[in-house]
């Protein structure tokens, strides 16, 4: 029930709350009716303003007539009152101070306080650095509540009759039970404690616990500060699963008959095979292991692997924690043609249209860091070249690279390797 107080200061357009800055430019909120601004930091480079303004608006809980209300504000310079206080009323809820004749005024610290207010209202002040205005929102405060309440609702996975159910709750004060427990039932799923005769009750720590509940339900308790209510959502728990399952689906590039196919899977516990492998086929592409008779089974690490598969397919396995199922998607792989080539492709990147018809660039292929063959001169006839390794089995097991060994002045090459096409893409970037 205790509220924390915060100090807000606007510095260089950043909001400081208890000494921590945030990029909430130009606006600061105050819970104690005070905003401080360093004017030397809030003057924009645009048009210089030589004024400070206060603008007050009312924020009511219900429609209220303020035609006869007044609010008195005081401007402060470097912590001291500047001039007399100003009484705002229905004729004008704003006032402005003009500093045109006071050069250097903006190098002082200015702030505004509400020094006289309507009972039951609390000002919140934010400073607008663009307009040099202290925006005062005069908020009507809610009536102090001297009660604590509990409200229980049921949260079921399916329609359930609770007409004969009961739930027992206990209120705690500073960790110790306060009074007896309360039994909630279908006549009334809420109760209220009244502390009107106990001044200072709100300075204690209060809590509520469910001490007796319907089997299969778990309470979630949230406290509503505005209504002083412990909201209890009594949630039905899902039934504990004592099984693991595998479910396999096929993902084909084209329509394929899998009526004669089979896939073998193996369950692993803590990295070791658990039981024998299971052969899935067209009769049943799933299987289930039941651990009802093995208490504590869920404390182990479980995994499933495909140990025998149809050629040309690759499994992707995802575990569904809700259903305890290893979902296997058996994906058909695209048949890619084996490439036994390496290539270079050169492109020019200019800041403006440039003629490269007479330019040349020399590139060198390297194998395991050593030059492979002679360098190749690329020109306007052909800005690419290809090396064929069809007659060199195992060539792909080496490290290959390409470098530009002779270049046009004023250009810098950037080389990226495309693993799908096995092409060194050379971009010649114009230097600025």
Q: What does the model show?
A:
By secondary structure, this protein is mostly beta strands. 0% of the residues lie in helices and 51% in strands. It has strands spanning 8-11, 14-17, 20-22, 34-38, 51-59, 70-77, 80-81, 86-89, 94-98, 109-116, 121-128, 133-140, 147-155, 166-173, 176-177, 182-185, 190-194, 206-212, 217-224, 229-236, 243-251, 262-269, 272-273, 278-281, 286-290, 302-308, 313-320, 325-332, 341-349, 360-367, 370-371, 376-379, 384-388, 400-406, 411-418, 423-430. Strands 1, 2, 3, 4, 6, 7, 8 and 10 form an eight-stranded mixed sheet that branches. Strands 9-5-12-11 form a four-stranded mixed sheet, with no helix packed on it. It has a four-stranded mixed sheet with strand order 17-13-20-19, with no helix packed on it. A hairpin with a 4-residue loop joins strand 35 and strand 36. It is flat and about 100 Å long. The model is unreliable at 1-46 (pLDDT under 50).
């Amino acid at each position: 029930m205790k509220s924390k107080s915060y100090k807000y200061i606007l510095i260089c357009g950043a909001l400081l709350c208890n000494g921590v800055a945030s990029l909430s430019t130009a606006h600061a909120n105050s819970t104690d009716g005070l905003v401080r601004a360093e004017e030397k930091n809030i003057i924009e480079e645009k048009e210089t303003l030589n004024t400070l303004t206060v603008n007050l608006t009312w924020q009511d809980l219900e429609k209220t007539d303020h035609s006869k209300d007044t609010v008195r504000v005081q401007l402060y310079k470097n912590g001291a009152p500047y001039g007399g206080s100003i009484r705002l009323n229905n004729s004008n809820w704003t006032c402005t101070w003009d500093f045109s004749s006071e050069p250097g005024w903006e190098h002082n610290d200015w702030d505004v306080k509400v020094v006289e207010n309507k009972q039951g209202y609390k000002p919140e002040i934010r400073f607008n650095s663009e307009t040099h205005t202290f925006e005062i929102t005069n908020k009507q405060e809610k009536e102090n509540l001297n009660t604590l309440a509990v409200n229980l609702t049921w949260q079921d996975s399916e329609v359930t009759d609770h007409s004969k159910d009961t739930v027992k709750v206990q209120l705690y004060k500073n960790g110790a039970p306060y009074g007896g427990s309360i039994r909630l039932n279908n006549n009334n799923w809420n109760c209220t404690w009244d502390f009107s005769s106990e001044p200072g009750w709100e300075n204690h720590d209060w809590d509520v616990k469910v001490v007796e509940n319907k089997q299969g339900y778990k309470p979630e308790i949230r406290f509503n500060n505005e209504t002083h209510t412990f909201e209890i959502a009594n949630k039905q728990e899902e039934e504990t699963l004592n099984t693991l399952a595998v479910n396999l689906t096929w993902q084909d590039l084209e329509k394929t008959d899998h009526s004669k196919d089979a896939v073998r899977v193996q369950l692993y516990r803590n990295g070791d095979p658990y039981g024998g492998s299971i052969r899935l086929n067209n009769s049943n592409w799933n299987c289930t292991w039941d651990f009802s008779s093995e208490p504590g089974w869920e404390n182990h690490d479980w995994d499933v692997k495909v140990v025998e598969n149809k050629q040309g397919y690759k499994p992707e396995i995802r575990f569904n924690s809700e259903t305890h199922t290893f979902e296997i998607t058996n994906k058909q792989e695209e048949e890619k043609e084996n490439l036994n080539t390496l290539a270079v492709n050169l492109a020019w990147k200019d800041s403006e249209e440039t003629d490269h018809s007479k330019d040349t660039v020399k590139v060198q292929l390297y194998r395991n860091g050593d030059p492979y063959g002679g360098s190749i001169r690329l020109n306007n006839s052909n800005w690419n070249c290809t090396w064929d390794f069809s007659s060199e089995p195992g060539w792909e097991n080496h490290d290959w690279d390409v470098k530009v060994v002779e270049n046009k002045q004023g250009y810098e090459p950037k080389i990226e390797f495309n693993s799908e096409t096995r092409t060194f893409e050379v971009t010649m970037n114009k230097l600025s």
